[in-house]
Amino acid sequence: MLDRWLNRLMDAQGGWTKPLGDLLHRFFFWFFGLMPAVRDLFVGRWLGHPLHAVLTDVPIGILFLVIVFDVLRLPEAAGWALLVGILAMLAAALAGFADYADTDGRARERATLHSTVMVVALLGYSLSFFLRVGPPGYGFLDVPAGFITSLGSFLILSAGAYVGGDVAYVLGNMVSRHAFRGAGTKWIALEPAELDANGAIPEGKPVKAKLGINQLVLVREGERILALHDTCAHAGGPLNEGKLVDGAIECPWHYSRYRLADGQVLRGPSVYHQPAYEVRVKDGGGWEARRRANDTLAG
């Protein structure tokens, strides 16, 4: 019952979250597009896991301690915890905006609501901090207004965290599109969607192919045929519509790059590797493929 009411409440914000989200998305897409290495740092490609999800736990825990220290009448400890919590919120926000730069559709609207609520909480905590700061040499003061403001800000922070959880767990943003894909290694007949005049897979270009219930992207290099799953692990883009770049294929949606030889992610915003497949000529003609038996990169 409560979840339905909360969902209706969040959906009702679409009148302003959609236009604001579209505006902010254009800016952050441009901003992080200027610095791919910085974007990869903040999305967590080096970690193999979204960095924002890691960082968000830090300020929530620290800012809860502010309430504990206030109740125990430890203003100095509360003040320092509040300062660290604010800095941790800023770090989490940077990672969140890097994810936001490549978030689309309903998830973007919900992420806009999430980030707006978090900014309000951040402003509340900043006000609480300045209310607590005493004259030079006096440290932090035990100010009732500071406690009330931080308590209210924590409630707002909790609401923002709920919306953020909805973005990830309900809408699946930044969840690997291959999280639940089986890793069977049985050889299955491969059906390329395109053949050249000689009945071979065209060389030097992405070619879509069907492998049972899966769709692959193939790239032939001489006698060697490289194959990855066609669905981009980041947001589901069709890799067969992407372009080849130095032994990698680039997703046409958000420009993540995966090494064709093994599916390793070379450039974000994806933080997940791509399932790789081995292809061989089938007895009697045609081809067959299977997921690599040692494909530990994509899980």
Can you offer a commentary on this structure?
The protein folds into two domains: 2-170; 188-291, 3-layer Sandwich (Rieske Iron-sulfur Protein). The chain has eight helices and ten strands. The protein is an alpha+beta fold and 299 residues long. Strand 5 and strand 6 (248-250) form a beta hairpin. The two termini are 37 Å apart. A six-stranded antiparallel β-barrel has the order 1-2-3-4-9-10. It has a four-stranded antiparallel beta sheet with strand order 5-6-7-8. Helix 2 crosses helix 7 (105-132), helix 5 (57-71) packs antiparallel against helix 6 and helix 5 (57-71) runs antiparallel to helix 8.
Q: Average the pLDDT over all residues and give the rounded result.
A: 92
The overall number of domains is 2
Q: Give the SSE string.
A: HHHHHHHHEEEEEEEEEE
* Neighbour order of strands in the largest sheet: 1-2-3-4-9-10
Q: Outline, from the CA principal axes?
A: elongated
Distance between the termini: 37 Å
Radius of gyration: 24 Å
Strand-residue proportion: 15-25%
The count of helical stretches stands at 8
Helix/strand-derived category reads: alpha+beta
> Strand count, sense and closure of the main sheet?
6 strands, antiparallel, barrel
